Amino acid sequence: MTFTLKKLYGKKEIRSAIEGCVTALDSPIALLDAGGAVIVGVQETNFSKYPVVVNGELIGWVCGGEKVGAIASMISCLATQEVEKKALAREVLGKYRELTLLYNISEKIIGSLDIKEVAGIVLEEAQRGIKASSGAVMLWEEGSDRLESIQTFGPAGGCFSELAATATLVNRSVETGRGEIVNDIGWELAPESGPHQPPGLASVMCVPLKTKEKVIGAIAIGNRESLGYSAEDLKLLTALASQAASAIAALAHENKLKESRRQAILFRLATQIRQSLELSTILETAVTEIRNLLRVDRCLFAWYNPAKSNIRSRESAEADERPPEPSSERSLRHHPGHFSHLTLHTSDYWQVINEAKHPALPSVIGDYATSEVGGLASKLLKMEIVRVDDVTKLTDSVMRQFFLKQDVSSILAVPIETRLGKRGFVACANSSKIRPWSDDEIELLEAVGNQLAIAIDQAQLYQQSLHSAQVAREKAEELEKTLVELQQTEAQLVQSEKMSGLGQLVAGIAHEINNPVNFIHGNLVHVNNYTLELLTVLNLYQKYYPEPVAELESAIEEMDVEFLMDDLPKLLSSMKLGTDRIRAIVQSLRLFSRVDESDMKRANIRDGIESTLMILQHRLNAQPGRLPIQLIFEDGDLPLVECYPGQLNQVFMNLMANAIDALEEAMASGQGSKSQTLPVLRIRTERVDFPEFDSDGELLENSRSPRVRITIADNGIGMTEAVRRRLFDPFFTTKAVGKGTGLGLSISYQIVVEKHRGTLECISEPDQGAEFIIELPIFQSKSQGNVSFFDRNTGMRDGKSVVHHIQNC
């Protein structure tokens, strides 16, 4: 240990503290070093010796009386503090050295864009902080398990991953992910590798290059002398390796990203050529993607146009009145919104049609005469790449002045030529600073140019195919329209034929039933009168002949004459009620069918609803294993409606029958029992008025379109959104085969919307029931007069809403 009691006593403040203690204790002392040599004072024979110990190591003695033992303890404490101060100073100095090194390397790495350059910076800093005669930065080769040196120094720099001794060390460090030190390389030598070991390589240190995900390589340094690399050296190299690994991984990722973006641009262009072949879209995408990838201030595409005369715009008539240009070769710059101005060229020119630029830069879209751009035009026409890193160094004064006028510092232009001989170019330009162009950037622009040439060649074929496709599409649309019309006509014919047959059958049955029923009903009046007369005679007979003969009395008791006299009038009354019921049903059937009403007329909507309910009455009643369906009829005050009554009855029948089907399905699935509510069919009628608007969307003054609304709702199974959207399509049905044709709602929609200029809507959600809303104009023509309302006594409405609750048992 280099720390001694003599050095400690040599410090002024410590010496003063010791002398102060000696004076205070009034006891002479002598200080001896660890070997017994006197440092200060005189050692007497009667003195006792007290050791001075620092961190368990003896550094001297204090000799004197009993009191000086405290002085020895004090000196030990002071010595320990001094040792700790020195250790802390060395640690702080090491940290400062490490931080300074890391700061310097970080600054250099940030400014580097190349992996090999980063590796060189790391090795350079390692040489400054650690003594080494050779070193290398190694990375895994792509697609192999071999480490490749990408940057080295010294005679053995390129051999760390190849020679047996160093290769063992490097492999162990990479596999374990920890740094390794060998201060005598001979320990690691394989017997057969001695002649190949680089001379003078005695000490070696290796640390892995690690990112968060994996080990990407290693840094190894060595020295020809056995220096004895320390843990501090390993720590410093590890810090450098951490910085290098992060930078190398980031640059590798950036390079892969740049390559993938390059491939992505080419892929997107090829995809657009295959999919759209819209040249304007392809060019716009190309210049935008190239600018974003290369990070340039501007990217543009231009066409070459040979000399032509009298190239005029759509406003040539106006242009004839304008004064001629001073020079026939002057370029008229076109900017967005000004392409309709006169364009008259008598020389060849370049036309910039697409650009992607920094927002602060002005647009360069427009026409430029060949003479204006100097040697740029001739080079491009010779299919030469124009690569200018610094415009100010151009020897072509015309081209230099043109670029400077356009605020261009560096430019790279790649020519293209189509199979049809049309020429153009893609160019990248920088304005903010000089930009050295790389070979990769030239390759990218050349690849984009090839893709664009393919797109231009195919554009004409694409336009021809578009025309052919348009003709075919129009024919297909016409056929599709015809098919839809045929489907609708078929549906109408099927439904019309069905309703016509049903109407004739109902009318025939009603006629056949009506004749005998009228006969019975008419004769029941006479039977009732005759019965009353006979009963009157029988009562008189009992009054005046109370004591009949035995045979007559026996017959009276056997026939229960008193019961017959009481029950016979009731029997006749019930028979009359039965015939009235039959006549009402027949009337409802005739009213529902309306086969004799083919013209539009003003009709009572309520009669159609009630006749439909009369026909469906049996389905509302309770069935075996099924609850009755509760009918709630909220009858509003409706006027006579101009309509086709028979067709509207058909609509009511379809909607009510579907509602009953939904309720029966809900009860069959147990939905009704879960909700603890009876199945309900609700019908509501009301009058609503809507404003009318002109063609400009303005409300017409004093104009209201009177309408009626009929709502038919149920609390059945409801329907999904997908089903609801297709509800009115012809032949669409969710019912089982044989239970539905898919025509009912389609025909209903046509009747309401097309025949009556009304609306038919459905509101429904699964398990929430369904509500169909019909709205009909009261008048089909605006020239109709006032609306009439029924009264209960006179046949017109009385103006009050009536709600009917019918519970079917």
Form type: elongated
The CATH homologous superfamily name of the largest domain equals Histidine kinase-like ATPase, C-terminal domain
Fill in the CATH topology of the largest domain. Heat Shock Protein 90
Taking the alpha carbons of the first and last residues, their distance comes to: 114 Å
Indicate the proportion of strand residues: 15-25%
| CATH top level assignment of the largest domain | Alpha Beta
Report the helical percentage: 40-55%
Count of separate structural domains: 5
* Total DSSP helices: 20
Mean pLDDT: 77
Name given to the CATH architecture of the largest domain? 2-Layer Sandwich
Please give the order of strands in the largest beta sheet. 12-11-10-15-14-13
pLDDT < 50 runs, ≥5 residues: 187-197, 309-345, 784-809
What does this structure look like?
- The chain is an alpha+beta fold.
- It has 5 domains: 5-95, 2-Layer Sandwich (Beta-Lactamase); 111-256, 2-Layer Sandwich (Beta-Lactamase), CATH 3.30.450; 276-313 and 325-437, 2-Layer Sandwich (Beta-Lactamase); 476-590; 598-806, Heat Shock Protein 90, CATH 3.30.565.10.
- The protein is 48% helix and 20% strand.
- The protein is built from 20 helices and 23 strands.
- The strands form 5 sheets. It has a 6-stranded antiparallel sheet, sandwiched between helices. The chain has a 6-stranded mixed sheet with strand order 21-22-20-19-17-23. The chain has a 5-stranded antiparallel sheet with strand order 6-5-9-8-7, with helices on both faces.
- A hairpin with a 4-residue loop joins strand 8 (203-210) and strand 9 (215-223).
- Residues 312-331 have a biased composition (Basic and acidic residues).
- This is histidine kinase.
- InterPro entries: GAF (IPR003018), GAF-like_dom_sf (IPR029016), HATPase_C_sf (IPR036890), HATPase_dom (IPR003594), His_kinase_dom (IPR005467), HisK_dim/P_dom (IPR003661), HisK_dim/P_sf (IPR036097), Phyto_chromo_attachment (IPR016132).
